[in-house]
Design a protein that fits this description.
The complex is a heterodimer of chains A (255) and B (242). With 255 residues, chain A is of the alpha/beta class. Chain A has one domain: Aldehyde Dehydrogenase, Chain A, domain 2 (3-Layer(aba) Sandwich). In chain A, 31% of the residues lie in helices and 21% in strands. Chain B is α/β, with parallel strands linked by helices and 242 residues long. The chains are: A alpha/beta (255), B alpha/beta (242).
């Protein structure tokens, strides 16, 4: 996010001799959530949560790094999430059976481990937490009982760290989901049509998914980009994208 | 104008690695890439390849002793030269018929499709993607090229304006100029190639600064676009030396 904002600021300054306004197209990250209400299919939701959180080691802007669960189903879904996470294989990605490879470099490795340490004081470590080398391997790590305003629930970690947060009712779930500076992707697992309709309007993210994971946007199908500090909502893979790279010229000829 | 016969867009299918044939293709691609690890790549400015002593070393995150490739660190002078080269190329590229730009981007998609497992294998080595994650990234890369090419056909076609008596009216989508593309490393194929191809197909020229942990994948994509005959509208620059 800092990099994007710095580019945005620099691009806004006009240099001597510059006779055009520079445009910026920015995609700056997310703190995306999978919301699970009391009516949800919990098996499907647990799968979606784990896949959203740990695919490519959680290093996606769209990664579901928060799971926001209705208190009435919280104790029932947590073991399902842990069971799904248990099945994750970590190792050398040249091996076809590997699900999670290393994180990208030593800087990412150190930063993620710092967040895991922070998480230990902010929530209950219920899965993973270990890391090893050579190679930048970090276990899929899950913290339960995390407060919505905890650092690991607010800051983009960009690694395999999931914060599980409890909500009291639908309104609370949605408030927590919207309660970050970002607004990139989000998923809602629910069988309650009124909740889905409400999320349709009020869940303020660029890419919203119902009863499926919040990663894996397809070109042309799910134009990708988000709100607030997630960037300029420049929908990559959408019909408006090329307009960002063009300007329209009207030509009239008297006949 | 180039005549094009472009079928409707459809997403590149994902590879089923349970199929032994696909598994073998990917294993062969990984072996090919492994035999090419550790090479030195050039910057490409105005079509000229520039090798420099001072390089950043891209390593395999699963085994940091293994060098994936070396990529030059640029200087402010070289960065400026790349922008100037792009500005020079823009003088003609902006007037190239859009169908010709579309043809080149589609040709890039086709060549990438032929090399898809190799492109995925580079991602496995350079950023630690699992096979399915790398394959999805490659498929998305192909999709962006195919999709933006078709969007340019739509924008390039006559636009639906209100008609009035006594005037012929047109609306043309013209490019902006020189763009700088600064992609992240986490979709080192798709985001890098998506932003680059969108800018290029709509008539802009660019300077791409690859992410410091995935320059080799950017260099592989640049090679593909050069091979299909893209003129030097696509400059490959580097991280500034610090």
């Amino acid at each position: 996010m800092e990099v994007g904002l710095r580019i945005h600021e620099r691009a806004a300054k006009t240099s001597p001799g510059q006779i055009w306004v520079k445009r910026t197209v920015l995609e700056m990250g997310g703190k995306d959530a999978v919301v699970v209400d009391e009516s949800a299919d919990l098996d499907a939701a647990a799968k979606g949560i784990v896949s959203s959180a740990f695919g490519f080691q959680g290093q996606k802007c769209s990664a579901g790094s928060r799971a926001i669960i209705h208190e009435r189903v919280y104790d029932r879904i947590l073991p399902k999430i842990l069971a799904e996470a248990d099945r994750i294989t970590i190792g050398d990605p040249t091996d076809p059976t590997t699900y999670m490879g290393p994180v990208v470099d030593d800087k990412a490795f150190n930063k993620i481990r710092e967040y895991i340490d922070i998480g230990k004081s902010e929530g209950k470590l219920v899965h993973g937490g270990e890391s090893w080398g050579p190679g930048y391997f970090i276990e899929p790590t899950i913290f339960a009982d995390v407060a919505p305003d905890a650092r690991i629930a607010q800051e983009e970690i960009f690694g395999p760290v999931l914060a599980v947060i409890k909500g009291q009712d639908w309104e609370d779930l949605l408030r927590i989901a919207n309660g970050t500076i970002y607004g990139l992707t989000g998923a809602v697992y629910s069988q309650d049509e009124s909740h889905l309709q409400d999320a349709y309007q009020r869940y303020h993210v660029g890419n919203l998914y119902f009863n499926r994971k919040c990663t894996g946007a397809m070109v042309g199908v799910h134009p990708f980009g988000g709100f607030n500090m997630s960037g300029t909502d420049s929908k990559a893979g959408g019909p408006d994208y090329l307009l960002l790279f063009t300007q329209a010229k009207s030509i009239a000829r008297k006949v | 104008m180039t005549k094009l016969n472009v079928p409707p867009f459809c997403n590149e299918p994902l590879t089923d690695y349970n199929d032994p044939v696909n598994r073998q293709l990917m294993e062969a691609a990984l072996a090919t890439v492994k035999s090419q690890l550790g090479q030195t790549y050039p910057l490409v400015i105005g079509g000229e390849e520039i090798y420099l002593e001072d390089t950043l070393v891209s390593v395999n995150p699963a085994n940091p002793d293994e060098v994936v490739g070396r990529f030059p660190k640029a200087t402010v002078e070289l960065g400026n030269r790349a922008i100037e080269a792009a500005a020079k190329a823009f003088e003609t590229w902006q007037y190239t018929p859009y169908t010709e730009r579309v043809r080149l981007v589609l040709a890039g998609a086709e060549l990438l499709r032929q090399r898809k497992h190799e492109f995925s294998a580079w991602m496995v080595y350079e950023v630690g993607k699992s096979w399915p994650e790398a394959d999805a990234d490659t498929a998305e890369t192909i999709d962006f090229l195919e999709y933006y090419a078709r969007q340019m056909l739509r924008l390039g076609a006559p636009q639906d304006l209100v008609r009035i008596d006594g005037e012929q009216n047109d609306l043309e989508y013209v490019p902006l100029g020189v763009g700088v593309v600064i992609p992240p490393w986490n979709f080192p194929g798709a985001i890098m190639a998506g932003m680059s191809s969108a800018a290029i197909v709509s008539g802009n020229t660019i300077v791409l600064k690859p992410a410091s942990t995935s320059p080799v994948i950017a260099a592989q994509f640049h090679r593909i676009m050069t091979e299909v005959g893209l003129p030097p509208v696509f400059n490959l620059s580097g991280q500034p030396r610090r």
